[in-house]
Request: fold
Amino acid sequence: MIESLDVILWDKKVGTLVANREGHRSKACFYFDSDYVRDGYDIAPLRAPVKGVAAQRGLPVYPDEERLFGGLPSFIADSLPDHWGNTVFNKWAKV
Reply:
C-alpha cells in the first residue's frame, strides 16, 4: 500500500513523503517540491541538498541504507519525537 503526505515548513510545501508499506515494514522516499527547490531554504544540506542532483531533477531522496531511521530519510526522522517524546505523547493521549 502506498501512502503519501505533504511536508510543510513555515507555510511552504517542502515536498512529499511517499511510503510503500509491505507487511510490517515500510520504506519511504522524499520528493522536493519544485517551487521549494527554486526558492527554498536548504533543510538537509548534507543528506539532501536542494542544489543536489535529486532535488534539481525531481528525483526521490531515499533513506541511508546503512542507518535506517524507521525507513525514513534521516532529515525527516530527525523531526520526529524520540523514545522519550513518544512516551510523553502517549501518556498525554491517554488523558
Summary: The chain has one domain: 2-94. Residues 2-94 form one domain. The beta strands are 2-9, 12-22, 25-32.
